[in-house]
Amino acid sequence: MRYLLFISIVLYCTACSSSYKALQRTEADPSCVKKFKPAFATALYTTQVDVIGKHLSGLLIIKTMPDSSVRMVFSNEAGFKFFDFGFEQDDFKVYYVFDQMDKKAVIKTLRKDFELVLMRHLDAQQSYTAKESQGLYHVFPDGRDIYYYITDGACDSLIRMERGSKRKKVVEALIKPGADNVPDSIGIRHYNFNFDIQLKRLQRDAQ
């Protein structure tokens, strides 16, 4: 019984430990990550979404509009639309979302996930860079959220993206670079509940 109690305490303390405790601020310029910002013109991705035991699959179109806003439309192979979102400079619009996804928490989560990948918080005034054994953490606070972009020590390659707080990682995104600064694949994984998104770029991008 005491052994089980000890194990429970260890697991609890591990879960509560800080993901960013070892970070130490450095003088590096956080704006160096701007060169990794995806440059979507029009890109088409096969998409797999797994959320709390439910699975959705289809195609996601990401398109930069003439006014520089970014439009994302996710639909299945038969053309049934799941959502249609717009990311403007200082705004986010829901043009359409089907009933089962029309929940405030779901929309908010998707918005923050894609804002992480689109790197839309790089102008945060309180940005800074910290170092850790794995490389540099370029930190961009936005309200209660903090967006982390992890690079190698020279800021020559982007290792991964994260969103969380000062203590805890909430979501991680891995990007495989492609031609013209458009990702070949994007993987998004949540750590606070079962929610994963996998995108793989099709060679025949939408026109």
3D architecture notes:
This protein is mostly beta strands and 207 residues long. It has a single domain, classed as outer membrane lipoprotein receptor (LolB), chain A. 14% of the residues lie in helices and 45% in strands. The protein is built from two helices and 13 strands. The protein has a 13-stranded antiparallel sheet with strand order 1-7-8-9-10-11-12-13-2-3-4-5-6, covered by helices on one side. Strand 8 and strand 9 form a beta hairpin. It is globular, with a radius of gyration of 18 Å. The N and C termini lie far apart (64 Å). The N terminus is likely disordered.
Describe how the helices and strands are arranged:
Layout: H1 2-16, E1 24-26, E2 42-51, E3 54-64, E4 70-75, E5 81-88, E6 91-97, H2 104-118, E7 128-132, E8 135-142, E9 145-151, E10 158-164, E11 169-176, E12 185-190, E13 195-201
Antiparallel strand pairs: 1-7, 2-3, 2-13, 3-4, 4-5, 5-6, 7-8, 8-9, 9-10, 10-11, 11-12, 12-13
Key traits:
single chain; 2 helices; 14% helix; mainly beta; 207 residues; 13-stranded antiparallel sheet; outer membrane lipoprotein receptor (LolB), chain A
